[in-house]
Amino acid sequence: MKRVILIISITITLILSLSTSGYADSASPHTFASVEGNRYLWDSESASGLLFPNGATFNQAFLPVGISLSLDDKEIELIPQSFPQKKESFWNFAFYSTSQFRNTPALLNLNEEILHFKGDRIYHVTYEREALTHESNYYQFHQLFFVERGPYQGDLLIIRSNEHVAIEDALSYYLAEDPLDPSLLQSPSDRVRVPLFNPKKALQSLLPNSTSNGQPLWGIFEPSAPRSLVTVNSLEAQLDTNFPLILRYANFTDSPNQLQADLQNARSENRMVELTLQTNEDNGLESSIYSVLNGTYDRELRDLARVVRQQGDPVLFRLNNEMNGDWCNYSALYFGMETQLYKDTWNWIYQIFQEEGADNARWIFNPNERSFPQYRWNHMLAYLPALDQIDAVGLTGYNTGNFYPGERWRSFAEIFDPIYKEYDKVFAYPLLITEFSSSSIGGNKETWIKEMFDQLPYYPRIEALIWWDYADYATGGKIARPYYIDETPDVMDAFREGFKSFYATE
User: Fold this and answer.
1) CA–CA gap between residue 93 and residue 374 (Å, rounded)
2) Which CATH number is correct for 6-191, 3.30.420.40, 1.10.630.10, 3.40.1000.10, 3.40.50.300?
3) 3 state DSSP class of 267
4) Distance in angstroms (rounded) separating the CA atoms of residues 465 and 284
């Protein structure tokens, strides 16, 4: 029987707190509901909610993704999920979300079962794990309830606690009405009503106006740079342009002395480095997040912070980019779907940089343009660090071509129109295209480049663009995605003409 749910007015205090948090306002789909004398925090779009007992704390930062409450020694999350295009079932969502659990040694006493509760089929997964030295809130017991409310929609209920919670007690926090139309569920980004910003720093450009002249700066990833800038200088001469920004990757195997020499070499030619730290251990899919939060790499992180500090000049610092992609072992797919651990990793490394005096680092939060898997729990906002620990937001997108099955040729506008509109609405931080490129397999790369230059004026908030000048390789060493800026004379001509018109508009 359908329960009678009385929606009551949300308190003024909650309205104000939601508005000032930047995550929602009085137009939010979340409100309080009264059911049989109990108070629930209710999501009107998914027609489901969480019991909100006395003493519970509402976790505002989680609001775009779902609902999160803290109570005693428990954390309770409710994340609605729907697939209105019917390209994926809710049951597949449940299985893929947990597909790496058995490959994650840190998840102890893992158990999976199928339950039936009040007419709903539930995929129930439990695990335990040990505390990590630098995490913010440790919970030993983890329960995930994937509540199927139809073939293409349902809810994910997560209970994290330090004492075992019985199944019936856990499910007593959850309430759902008859499911609504799946298309009514807004994306997490659409639920952000006020652009997010750093509350401790005024909005300002990260890049010197004397260099940019009101136009975005150009940069390049070239594998030998900035250790050697010979190839970059040659490309600049051939293309009649400048690349004042250089992308350099780093991991825990880097020599601090070599990194310092590389950064100084860039500075000697008045170039700024976008330093990207990826906390990979061996490039395998066993997550490095646990090791970082247990202090295994504290020495390497402090060495890195000192190198950045000694550089003196600002360093664009990108930490664990594309975290919402399942090709990265710092995606929460590989550490129990605990996106909080990504935030804790960011916070710990940020604190190390502050302790070492590396306040010349400019921190760039940089998701991939699309989430893989494209689930709400894996949305970029689920990974968002503390707002005062972000200086800019990066956009990343590639025209991968169609070498692999399922891929297709995409124009620059097709890639960046949606993400620019989304980020322009969600973030008040400076925006940079931190890496992008186009393959030549599956379409006309020269036309792609011309259209890219034509499109740039429509993105006035973009302060920089960095072309990724290398290739992705398939098994056996065959080039799958040639991203080279000098791939052919025609490609170079397209860039040369594009830069000519680009600078003519300054």
Assistant:
1) 9
2) 3.40.1000.10
3) helix
4) 29
d(CA 278, CA 319): 6
Q: Give the containing element (helix H, strand E) for 503.
A: helix 489-504
Closest among 398, 469, 464 to 433, alpha carbons compared: 464
Which residue spans within 268-422 are E strands per DSSP?
272-277, 315-319, 361-365, 392-399
Nearest Cα to Cα of residue 45 among 232, 175, 181, 247 = 181
Question: Mean pLDDT per segment of 10 residues, for the chain of length 506 residues?
Answer: 44 34 59 90 95 93 94 96 97 98 97 95 99 98 98 98 97 93 93 92 71 80 99 99 98 96 98 96 77 97 99 97 97 98 99 98 98 98 98 98 97 99 97 99 99 97 98 96 99 98 80
Q: Which fold has domain 216-224+239-484?
A: TIM Barrel (3.20.20)
pLDDT at site 469 = 99
Which single residue is written with the structure tokens 């609405």?
A: 425
Q: Write out the two tokens for 300.
A: 């390497």
